[in-house]
TrEMBL record, chain A:
One Pfam family linked to the record: TsaD
Annotated Gcp-like domain residues: 37-122
Membrane spanning residue stretches: none
Superkingdom to which the source organism belongs: Bacteria
Biological process annotations from GO: tRNA threonylcarbamoyladenosine modification
Name assigned to this protein: tRNA (Adenosine(37)-N6)-threonylcarbamoyltransferase complex dimerization subunit type 1 TsaB
Gene Ontology, cellular component aspect: cytosol
Species lineage: Bacteria, Pseudomonadati, Pseudomonadota, Alphaproteobacteria, Rhodobacterales
Gene3D superfamilies with a match to the protein in the record: 3.30.420.40
TrEMBL record, chain B:
Function according to Swiss-Prot or TrEMBL: Required for the formation of a threonylcarbamoyl group on adenosine at position 37 (t(6)A37) in tRNAs that read codons beginning with adenine. Is involved in the transfer of the threonylcarbamoyl moiety of threonylcarbamoyl-AMP (TC-AMP) to the N6 group of A37, together with TsaE and TsaB. TsaD likely plays a direct catalytic role in this reaction.
Pfam families: TsaD (PF00814)
CDD domains xrefs: ASKHA_NBD_TsaD_bac
Cell compartment(s), UniProt: Cytoplasm
Name of the protein this chain belongs to: tRNA N6-adenosine threonylcarbamoyltransferase
Family label: Belongs to the KAE1 / TsaD family.
Cofactor: how and how many bound: Binds 1 Fe(2+) ion per subunit.
Domain Gcp-like: 26-313
GO biological process annotation, one example: tRNA threonylcarbamoyladenosine modification
Organism: Stagnihabitans tardus
EC number: 2.3.1.234
Catalytic activity: L-threonylcarbamoyladenylate + adenosine(37) in tRNA = N(6)-L-threonylcarbamoyladenosine(37) in tRNA + AMP + H(+)
Gene Ontology CC terms: cytoplasm
Length: 202, 354
């Protein structure tokens, strides 16, 4: 049997990241960048694989970060991962950033900056988009991610150090806990119906 | 050697994949439209389009391969639209293609969407260079002299809306469904094209540039006058407005085509884009060609509206001509075919559709 090699990629925020899990080893590549992930992602993954003496055909499981985050960024990695899955003929799973932040810590309240005074949060229940000021009803054992200190002050719990998102995406996938490889937006497309109504036809 | 390419297209509101051979066989052409998703908004919403492409495009590729009866191992390369168009959709296509290429080792060819349209008559009719191409769709309107797989000279184009966009907006003003071209044409059949004297924009100016947004405004004014008079829009008035509008578009396209043919001395006119389906416009263009003694061809609609077979074909032409450039894989919203021409003109003012 081929050894399991899990490859995770993530471009859901201002970064380009990839991670590999194989034979008990965990390696990652991470670069901060606001733009240019579309060009950088594949060469970065190829270098990461080559650095471990691996190539594309060695990959047995693909994982992709599905957000929530930057809409375009999320789609860059999701589209690339879907192409890789088609080309390699291996399974692909999606892992949300909130799932990745909470990995290994049942009872954690995970939080990401959603801009405009809002946050993406996930505790025991489903993930949600909420106003920071209006968060309520949590009693987490841990807090992790954006403003984890403030969250712990408000709701209690131990503050966890922010983990590597992309490594945790790989770990969630390798643990068989991934989901659909589809963008996880949590925010609508912001489209408005046309304002001028059609005329009355006589 | 016969080449077999996979083509991927996602620059506007159609997710498409196709498998095409260099002997001009279209083995498959899958197009999944998004009209229903955008209908409530009266136009293509870029973020909604991008979301749909990201969900559907890989499924289109799988279907195109299955329908063609080929595997990735049977391909010689992958061609993908890398612009111009709505950047979210273009990026989804380019990244999907990059993933497939990395996994399989297949070469990648970045294709200009407009080159795909412009080279289609060679796929469908085996047309020889040179020829004049009139691209008239929902997002584009331009005259291109096509002299080689990478040789395009733009003679003129719209300075504002594309004709398909004008058909769609006018249809909306007249309470007709979207996309507006077909229902507007059907209404026009019952109408009097001479009833309303609508403007023929830019006909008084030399050259091949066109304008359609003023025409739309003129229709709006005529409509509002009718509504003020009758308390609503009467069916016959609407049919007459449709016929008058369509006649104006046809007249502008015909006269500018006459000039473009004269200027370019092209032996053939090829028409592409959804608006080419309009029989009044088509007849007007055919008439111009007959008078000028030049050939006329219009590829079948499924290959001259947005599709991926044309992208695969343009990829084949680029490969065969040695024109493949890795820099062409960078996704971009704007990408004029004719590097010499002034930017902005040729695609609608907001790019490929608003
Ligand atoms: N019979 C017709 N008459 C006029 N316009 C038409 C007709 N059929 C389709 N169209 C127009 O063609 C456009 C769609 O063509 P297409 O080539 O798919 O363009 P795009 O992808 O740029 O929107 C729409 O704007 C539609 O209204």
């Amino acid at each position: 049997m081929r050894p399991e090699v899990t490859l995770a990629i993530d471009t859901s925020a201002a970064h380009c990241a990839a991670a590999l899990l194989f034979r008990g080893r965990e390696v990652e590549a991470f670069e901060e960048m606001a733009t240019g992930q579309a060009e950088r992602l594949m060469p970065m993954v190829e270098a990461l694989l080559a650095g471990q003496g691996l190539g594309w055909p060695d990959v047995t499981l693909l994982a992709v970060g599905t957000g929530p985050g930057n809409f375009t960024g999320v789609r860059i990695a999701v589209a690339a991962a879907r192409g890789l899955a088609l080309g390699l003929g291996v399974p692909l799973v999606g892992v949300t950033s909130l799932q990745a932040l909470r990995f290994g810590h049942e009872g954690a309240l995970a939080c990401l900056d959603a801009r405009r005074g809002a946050v993406y949060v996930q505790g025991e229940g489903a993930a949600a988009l909420a106003e920071w000021e209006e968060l309520s009803g949590f009693s987490p054992a841990f807090t992790v991610g954006y403003r984890a200190d403030d969250l712990a002050l408000r709701f209690g719990g131990t503050v966890l150090p922010t983990p590597s998102l992309v490594l945790n995406i790989a770990r969630v996938a390798a643990a068989g806990q991934g989901g659909a490889p589809a963008p996880f937006y949590l925010r609508g497309a912001d489209a408005l119906p046309p304002s001028d109504p059609p005329p009355v036809i006589l | 050697m016969v080449l077999t390419l996979l083509g991927i297209e996602s620059s506007c509101d159609d997710s498409a994949a196709a498998v095409v051979r260099s002997d001009r066989a279209v083995l498959s052409s899958v197009v999944e439209g998004q009209a229903a998703l955008h209908a409530p908004f009266g136009g293509v919403v870029p973020e909604i389009a991008a979301r749909a492409h990201a969900e559907k495009l890989d499924g289109c590729v799988a279907r195109a391969l299955a329908e063609a009866g080929v595997g990735l191992a049977d391909l010689d390369a992958v061609a993908v639209t890398s612009g111009p168009g709505l950047i979210g959709g273009v990026l989804s296509g380019v990244m999907l293609a990059r993933g497939i290429a990395a996994a399989t080792g297949l070469p990648l060819v970045g294709v200009n969407h407009l080159a795909g349209h412009a080279l289609t008559p060679r796929l469908t009719d085996g047309l020889e260079f040179p020829y004049l191409m009139l691209l008239v769709s929902g997002g584009h309107c331009q005259f291109l002299m096509v002299s080689g797989p990478g040789e395009f000279r733009r003679l003129g184009g719209t300075i504002d809306d594309a004709p398909g966009e004008a058909f769609d907006k006018v249809a909306k003003l007249l309470a007709l469904p979207q996309p507006g071209g077909p229902p507007l044409e059907a209404e026009a059949l019952k109408g009097d094209a001479k009833r309303f004297a609508l403007p023929r924009p830019l006909l008084d100016r030399p050259g091949c540039d066109m304008s359609f947004s003023g025409l739309k405004t003129a229709v709006l004014r005529a409509r509002d006058a009718l509504i003020a008079e009758h308390g609503g829009l009467r069916r016959q008035d609407r049919a007459d407005l449709c016929a008058s509008f369509q006649a104006a578009v046809a007249a502008v396209l015909a006269e500018k085509t006459r000039r473009a043919l004269a200027e370019s001395e092209a032996p053939v006119l090829a028409v592409a884009g959804g608006v080419a389906a309009n029989s009044v416009i088509r007849a007007a263009l055919q008439g111009v060609c007959e008078k000028a003694g030049v050939g006329f061809t219009a590829p079948p609609l499924r290959l001259c509206t947005d599709n991926a077979a044309m992208i695969a074909w343009a990829g084949i032409e680029k490969l065969q001509a040695g024109l493949v450039d890795p820099a062409d894989l960078t996704a971009r919203p704007r990408w004029p075919l004719d590097a010499m021409a002034a930017p902005m003109i040729g695609s609608g003012k907001k790019g490929a559709k608003a």
